From TrEMBL:
Gene3D superfamilies: 2.30.42.10, 2.40.10.120, Trypsin-like serine proteases. InterPro entries: PDZ (IPR001478), PDZ_6 (IPR041489), PDZ_sf (IPR036034), Peptidase_S1_PA (IPR009003), Peptidase_S1_PA_chymotrypsin (IPR043504). Pfam families: PDZ_6 (PF17820), Trypsin_2 (PF13365). This is Trypsin-like peptidase domain-containing protein. Residues 405-448 form the PDZ domain.
Amino acid sequence: MIIIKKTFTTGVFLLLLSAQCFGQKFRPKKLEETLSIAVKKAYGASVRIWGYDTLKKVQTSAQFTGVVVTAQGHILTAAHVNQPDNTYLIMFPNGKSHVARGLGEIEFTENKMFPDVALMKIIEAGAWPYAEMGWSSSLKIDEPCLSIAYPETLNQTLPTLRFGRITDLKNQFGFIQSTCVMEPGDSGGPLFDHFGRVVALHSAIGTDEDENYEIPIDLYRKYWTALNVSKTYGALPSNEDAVGNDPLQSAILNIPALQDQQGSFSTLTTELKESCLGISSTVHGKTQKINGTLISLTARSAVGNNVINSLVISKSSLIGEDPVVFTANKSFALKVILRDPENDLVLLQPIGSIQGGIQLKQFNRDSLSFQRLGKFLISPLPDRPDQVSVIGSMYFNAPKRFSIGYLGAMATFKDSNIVITAVQPGSPAGISGIAVGDRVLSINDMAINKPEDYGAELMKFWPFDSLTFKIKRLDQLYFKNLTLDVFKSPLSTHPAELFNGGKSIRRDGFTQVFSHDGRVKPEECGGPVFDLKNRFCGINIARSSRTTTLVVPTEVLLRLIERYQSSLPTR
């Protein structure tokens, strides 16, 4: 067993002092500082993993997560994603990748989901970034914790952060439970304490977003020697190692205020809370509710003789005909003045005067650097308590994957033509009369000559876009008009697909976003996001998955506002 010795003297004193300060009064900014230190220690050791054929150099499994815990390259992960002696590609956040081999795992013969313990090791010799192992035996209820893992739906090379608290020290199956949300891809990922030490590994989830089950780190400590043998144990190994005692146990925080995050983090002024407005409009014949963000222009813009004091920014795909905004005492009609389909943004002008709003000087213009990961955010909502979250990523591009318009037809390249091979009954293609055997000549007058043309052209469009297919059937030419539908994922009973509120229909295809772990429902998007300094950071644009809400940052919003202002006549 590899034992890492450290001295704690002054550090323990400072941590004890910090714990006393938290005990006297909960201070969100102090906790934020503590977590920032933990992130710096832990981030570089959290690795993305998938099965890897070293001869063909191809991926052989879905992605999952692990954490390096020794300089020699030992990796903790979950047994349900590991196979002894199989090879895996390990990808560090710094962009470097290496091959690892599966070592020992423990999964009970009668139920392979328990205790879900596995170990890997990087094959190549080296000195690897690693995180310190903590002790699960010293955890406390309401202790703050962090997840750093790779959710499958985002498919990003860098991990995302999520914040939570410990809610159960040992359930009936031997798992720890936390509120750090997980989804597929996070399996085997690390749960860190507020010192940046690994205290558990992600294993399973329930339907409720607070049901996240973690493998205790002490199991890896106790069976370290056994796990270094490439073997599947159907029962707990007889060979046991000493678990040891946690030298920082007395400094571990438990913060009951975290049970009511909305109330405990209420740092926003009334004016900023009221900058989140409810909007109603008609979208495809149905009443649609969404939130919007009120921006104060402080009499900067004018149309004719009318000075425009405020604008509302929201999510374009959920703003349709006759939009109306609701304030505390009144409702106002809104006029759509500019849409940005690329970022799913819409700029609206209130027909009337709305007081308040976010001033441009409150926009956070700082670029999103690594130092801001784990910083707290607050999303005010008009109809329920504010949602508290942490910044989970730096800026990234979210390519269109799940938000494509649904056609319902498959095609292949045959005899120098794109030929329809299958049509789903009741789909837009089927309703329009497109049939198997039809040759596609063009889509919206864009010629389809090569196999890649067909997919590339369809990827440009969104649900409810109208298309005209020019097809050739036998020797006759036809034009088929259709409207794309919402892509319907296969029905799934996986808990990751059953969380409260579900996913946004338009949830990707964004040029610049960042993530947080706030539990914002699709119809609550469009509202503002603030940091603890009351700075405006962007608007919630989509609920991407169980773990992730996406934010369009302020610099993108500023470009939209400036584009609008530049189009106004000079006075």
